[in-house]
Design a protein that fits this description.
Helices cover 48% and strands 15% of the residues. It is α+β, with helices and mostly antiparallel strands. A 5-stranded mixed beta sheet has the order 3-4-7-6-5. Strands 13-17-15-16-14 form a 5-stranded mixed beta sheet, with no helix packed on it. Strands 19-20-18-21 form a 4-stranded antiparallel beta sheet, with helices on one face. Helix 3 packs antiparallel against helix 4 and helix 4 packs across helix 7.
């Protein structure tokens, strides 16, 4: 945006065009609209766009696009004023008092965050998050945003290349899917093609040329099929309208990318023409009739005339898409062979809703129904917002949630859940409810037992088998694909870590105070508040201090000394006692799997779990910002089992594996993993088992050796030790 010292005389021609497009408003509403335009023009006076046009032309064009959708007065005024908070001296209070509180609320939701200390990606992420939250209550915010982005993409040319690419990429990732969710087919198509023109200009030009070159044969085929189907329907006294649905450049590009590797710098026109040929043999068209029953009659006629491809059939009347799209879709072989025809059959109302998108609700005086139609995907965005505090993480998750869902899955009760194509059974569980995902122990897919990581197919019925306790595992993040599942798992662990860290921190501080001859109970509220103030925390945030201790961000000895007004200092060696029940803030290193009886030390990284290693483990090297601390096992009986690994070498006999497994089972040893290899009539067996301590492990190894089933039995480490 530029500014000029002496503004040009502003033409009212854009205002006149807006008032003509808004003729559906009554005269008093058009007067309010004109006042809003004058207010916006005053705010932006002296400002120029990159094209050197007066800035007011942009919000006026956005309002004209909104008027073409027949949005109400407040939406049109908000479209005119959507940039005044960001790009002028107008404040929110002035907007509320001089225009209206409702309009100000919409404009505020459309305004980019102003923050000098944040990077652009954080600003964009926070802005989109606030925008998504506003959508929950007012879908008009999203419609105006689509109009704004559409005009911006139409006028992108004067900007520098890097900025154009950034805007195009953001549009493709966020606002194209949003337009699709709201049913704006024409707007989405134009946005996609504008993005392709910026991101892949060479492909865009070649694809447009190829589409124009082949339009004639597709038009002739459309006319022939329309004539033949129309004649067959006339015999049944069925009147129908026929409409072509042309490919556009980005749709063709997406299919080419999916089917083959494209490189703009190496492909020529002949290569592209050859790759496009199979795709352009698909003709797309719509047949529009009066009612739903007739839709099914037309389907029968089509299947009598042409051979259908059954796996391509879909009934979106019985099961509408996530954006409330309804139609019958069938794909048939065209007469003469070689071509396929994708036909969507819908009623006049379905057709108008498909063409107009959410604007149909305002054209038919049903604005509340638009909010209801958006509820399924808005609910998922809201749930995603609640499970993550990180704006960047929310932005990536929102892009995934807005992306088109194509997989239809069902609960045993027949409830429909739309998921991405690569979703698994655990994704389904979290789509139903967070708590169902947390307690998932297994599943049945189409009444057959299956693992939670099983990829789902279209039409699968999924039943989640629940456990009594929460069984969340970080390993689940390796195979879940939906942002909802990923965010819910991360939030569970963040909350669990915080809870366990506070308990651990309290125990560590209590033990330290006891060594100093006092206790946590003896520390009064005044001392706790003073400590918080000393640490630059709120006076009532003592629990935060305990969490920091449990997360190894503060040393319990230093905090204890500050609480008791002693000079803070640390002894050279002070071993922290490990009981094995600390929870998530403590993890036992998988490389050496320490057990009670081993000499241990801790690898500490602030804000992460304390990793317990054997003293001799070579993997226990402090990374940047971390350090080693001395540890010792508690003298008390720990009352739990610990993972360890053993390696057995035995003659390769029949049933040697089952015989060894039986010995372990008879001694109440839980086996969590096995590996069995054969070489030169010898068997190498690896077992991951659970034992109480080092003494217990040695007893097991001794029994295995005495059984004469094995030649040797020893403990096994993943990483080298000293």
């Amino acid at each position: 945006m530029k500014s000029i010292s002496e503004p040009k005389t502003i033409s009212t021609e854009p205002l006149n065009r807006l008032l003509v497009r808004a003729a559906y408003l009554d005269s008093s509403e058009r007067s309010f609209l004109e006042e809003a335009w004058k207010f916006a023009e005053g705010c932006h006076r002296g400002q120029l766009r990159a094209s050197n046009d007066p800035y007011i032309t942009h919000p006026t064009e956005v309002a004209i696009l909104a008027a073409d959708m027949h949005l109400d007065l407040d939406a049109l005024r908000a479209a005119l004023l959507h940039d005044v908070l960001e790009d002028s001296d107008c404040g929110i209070h002035k907007l509320r008092t001089e225009i209206s509180p409702d309009v100000a609320q919409i404009v505020e939701a459309l305004t980019k965050l102003k923050a000098k200390n944040l990077k652009r990606d954080h600003v964009d992420a926070n802005t989109f998050r606030r925008f998504a939250q506003a959508l929950q209550n007012d879908i008009r915010v999203g419609i105006i945003k689509i109009c704004d982005r559409l005009h911006n993409m139409r006028t992108l040319q004067p900007l520098e290349a890097q900025k154009k690419r950034r805007i195009a990429r953001q549009t493709l990732d966020l606002y194209v899917p949003l337009a699709l969710r709201m049913g704006f087919t024409a707007e989405r198509t134009e946005l996609e093609d504008k993005c392709l023109e910026v991101l892949e200009p060479q492909f865009y030009e070649m694809l447009c040329s190829e589409l124009n070159r082949t339009r004639g044969p597709r038009t002739r085929l459309f006319n022939a099929i329309s004539k033949q189907v129309s004649g067959a329907l006339a015999e049944l006294d069925i009147e129908a309208g026929f409409y072509p649905d042309e490919f556009h450049a980005n749709a063709l590009y997406t299919r080419l990318k999916r089917n083959s590797r494209l490189q703009a710098d190496s492909i020529n026109v002949d290569d592209l023409r050859q790759k496009c040929a199979p795709l352009l043999r698909l003709l797309r068209m719509q047949i529009v009739v009066e009612d739903e029953n007739t839709c099914y009659q037309v389907l029968g006629v089509l299947h009598r005339l042409y051979k259908p491809i059954l796996e391509r059939f879909a009934d979106y009347i019985a099961l509408p898409k996530d954006n409330d799209y309804k139609a019958l879709r069938t794909v048939v072989f065209a007469p003469g062979g070689g071509n396929q025809v994708a036909i969507h059959i819908r009623t006049r109302e379905m057709h108008e809703r498909a063409v107009q998108g959410f604007a149909w609700y305002w054209r038919n005086n049903q604005p509340d129904a638009a909010q209801k139609a958006a509820r399924p995907w808005l609910k998922r965005l809201d749930a995603l917002s609640k499970i993550t505090d990180d704006d960047i993480e929310f932005l990536h998750g929102a892009a995934g949630e807005l992306a088109p869902n194509k997989l239809q899955t069902y609960s045993p009760q027949g409830d429909l859940f739309l998921l991405p194509l690569d979703a698994c059974a655990l994704d389904f569980a979290y789509a139903v409810h967070d708590e169902l995902g947390h307690r998932a122990a297994g599943c049945r897919i189409n009444n057959q037992i299956a693992p939670l990581d099983r990829r789902l197919q279209n039409g699968d019925m999924v039943e989640i088998i629940k456990s009594r306790k929460r069984k969340v595992q970080t390993s689940w993040l390796a195979f879940v694909t939906t942002p909802k599942a990923q965010g819910s798992i991360r939030k569970f662990y963040r909350d669990a870590v915080q809870s366990d860290a506070e308990k651990l921190g309290q125990r560590m501080l209590q033990e330290t105070l006891e060594q100093m001859g006092t206790s946590l109970r003896a520390i009064g509220q005044t001392q706790r508040r003073e400590l918080c103030q000393l640490l630059k925390l709120e006076p009532d945030q003592f629990s935060r201090v305990l969490k920091d201790i449990g997360m190894w961000q503060r040393h319990p000895r230093l905090i204890a000394q500050q609480l008791t007004n002693q000079q803070p200092h640390l002894p050279d060696e002070e071993a922290l006692e490990i009981q094995g029940t600390e929870g998530l803030p403590v993890e036992f290193a998988p490389c050496c799997l320490p057990i009670p009886g081993d000499s241990i030390r801790g690898l500490m990284r602030p804000g992460s779990a304390l990793q317990v290693h054997q003293q001799k483990c070579l993997d226990a090297h402090p990374p940047d910002g971390g350090g080693l601390i001395p540890l010792r096992w508690s003298d008390q009986k720990l009352g739990r089992s610990f993972d360890t690994q053993i390696y057995l070498r035995a003659p390769d006999r029949t049933k040697v594996l089952s015989s060894i497994t039986q010995i372990l089972s008879e001694n109440n040893i839980f086996i969590s993993g096995t590996q069995y290899t054969r070489k030169d009539e010898q068997a190498d067996l690896y077992f991951k088992i659970q034992v109480e301590n080092l003494v217990h492990l040695n007893e097991i190894l001794k029994k295995l050796t005495q059984s004469k089933l094995v030649d040797s039995a020893e403990r096994f480490f993943e990483s080298p030790t000293k």
